[in-house]
Amino acid sequence: MRVAKVIINRPAKQLHKPLSYLMPEKFGNILPGTRVLIPLGNSREEGILIGYEDLSEPPEFTLRNIVQVLDNEPWFTPEMMDTARRLNEYYLFSYGDALRLFTVNKTLKSYEAPREEWLVVTPAFTVEQFSERKKKQRELAKYLLEVGGASKALLLAKGFSRMVIKQVSEAKGITIESRFKATKTSFDELLTEEVNIALTNAQQAVYEPIQEAMNTHQHKTFLLHGVTGSGKTQLYLKATEKCISQDKTAIILVPEIILTDQIVRRFVETFGDEVVVFHSKLTVQQRNNNWERLRRKDSHIIIGARSAVFAPAEDIGLIVVDEEHDTSYKQEDMVRYHARNVALWRGEAHGCPVILGSATPSVTSYYKAKQGEYQLLELPHRIFEQPMPKVTIVDMKEEILHGNYSVFSDAMSSLIQKTLNEHNQMIILLNRRGYSTFVMCRDCGETIMCPHCDVAMVYHQAGEELRCHYCEHHEPIPTVCPKCNSQRIKFFGSGTQKVEEELRRHFKSARIARLDQDVTKNKQLAEDILHDFGTHKYDILLGTQMVSKGHDFKDVTAVGILTADSVLNIPVYSASERTFDLLTQTSGRAGRGDKPGSVVIQTYNPLNYAIIKSKAHDYVGFYNEEIQNRKALGYPPFREMIHMVVRHQNMETLEAIANRIVSDLEVHKGDTDILINGPYEASIKKVRDMYRLAIMIRGTDLSNLKEYIYNSWIFIQEGLLIDVDPV
């Protein structure tokens, strides 16, 4: 007896295993990956057919029929289904959740994206069929032969008249196709000319093994370690050009679209309508449109943040993970996965190269390259031999001893004034948003805490309120202490809003822009700020980690980092790595033009090796120290990790559940080197009125324990969060 195995297409932990149904003969041979409508209880649900099973004898219960087939052809390819299965098994979330990552909020209603006309050349098309007197027609013909085809909208944007386009479209060897229209981006005005910058000798040497892998359709993982400003983007463009010449799809991942618009601009300038851009601000219609363009091969290049790795392409020829070290590639909500791993799995399935690029590669990636698992490619110098910026470390304890209690050290103030005097630009990093980090009573020491989370409220000058950065609870600033009724309420610490105020007070002529999470809630405002800073409408760009990523401003000669210890003090094993990355990446924004760069880093811990090595831009030196510490303490890449957080509104119930999980895991881990720590109080013991206890699991191979967790009561325990490979 043959039965269909169906996964319910909605997030429900209790329905994480496939259900059995009968496939009526009238539907014919329906392939796995097709969406179907099934009865479930008294309702009907959308499901995904994942395969069939032959039973030797009928089951004890009555099987119900599949009601309707919802797709004319499978939405999920075999590769997508295999990748979803790997996600399901490795990261411990349901197969249905994994499959949904490859969709774009698809509904049961059909969707037809807007279309546009394309002029596409065939082998019969030649320039010679146009008279030499028809210069514009010949110019258009040459362009079409170069690119193979283009939309009428793009040709109009390039300055060709409607009459010229019509005359060429009627020529021998031109076919007119209706293709899905490319979603507009904010960079359309740049589609004026192709960019074709020759590679330097150093870049060419690095590109050759990538080209060889693409020529032989070989899956290889390349770790491209290039210092900031070494020209990694140009290599991505060259490899992408090769990819689409093979009629394959290139996936380009960037940490955050809104903060890396320069790399997007480079791709759109170079490839025009071949590019579709994905980010969280697109409407469902725009996402559907872009997805359909890729599925139908109207476009061959997708650029986006981590979710773009799930592009529904059947012929991937290249995957690039730019700034591969960046923690934003790790999805932390609902389903937890790392886009870098997904990129590697998809590259392996498609037999194509994967390029992991960074000036500060993740310790795990660099370790794999040193072990020969990845091929290491290096660009140790900036393009055109521009010098790396000079970095000065300031010990803030010394500043206090000399009576300077300002947020700016003397060296920082001098660098700001020098930059303004020379009419250059500066980026200042402060990894705290808001005005003050906490509010405290000076009489009794009471800190104003969030009523729903175990964290201090942050004062935001905009709106004159206290705000929790975990649950977004906000309330007016108290006039008296809630504990002792004192009126001596004081603001402590400095956030980006307060530093902006200090800058305006001390440097009155400076034109200052602030970029933090409060600003980037408005995507257009954030884009406008970056654009205006790039055109030198501002002298200083102040912000959180957002100012450290991917920016290439030629007039930025100075960088200031106000609190180098903010990441170093986070209680995670990767704190030193994150600190080195942040300091090195931010410092690398300075001196990328024809003027030398200067950096001032303020810290209370100047002897920490992550800070010392960042001063010299010495990644290898940092790696050598960090990898020894990781090995001694049993952290990745030497051991795998699973971090669990158990949540409940009642502490006694929470403790009982957490202790039961630990006891069960201890029994089923077997005689292995697996260590189970906990339960212990989570770093934040209460969020959104839910108490939290943590459990940490470490071992050289956790695959068997993962399989047990997925098939046991633990997986469906309400309030349990599972994070495989925490960062």
Polypeptide structure, described:
Helices cover 32% and strands 24% of the residues. It has 22 helices and 32 strands. Helix 3 crosses helix 5 (162-169), helix 6 (201-215) runs parallel beside helix 7 and helix 19 packs antiparallel against helix 20. It is globular, with a radius of gyration of 28 Å. Residues 106-112 and 184-195 have low confidence and may be disordered.
Which labels suit this protein?
single chain, 22 helices, 7-stranded parallel sheet, 727 residues, 24% strand, 32% helix, alpha/beta, 6-stranded parallel sheet
The span between the termini is 47 Å
Segments where pLDDT lies below 50 for 5+ residues? 106-112, 184-195
- The whole-number mean of residue pLDDT values reads 88
Largest sheet: 7 strands, parallel
Shape: globular
Subunit structure: Component of the replication restart primosome.
Catalytic activity: Couples ATP hydrolysis with the unwinding of duplex DNA by translocating in the 3'-5' direction; ATP + H2O = ADP + phosphate + H(+)
Cofactor: Zn(2+)
InterPro entries: DEAD/DEAH_box_helicase_dom, Helicase_ATP-bd, Helicase_C-like, P-loop_NTPase, PriA, PriA_3primeBD, PriA_3primeBD_sf, PriA_C
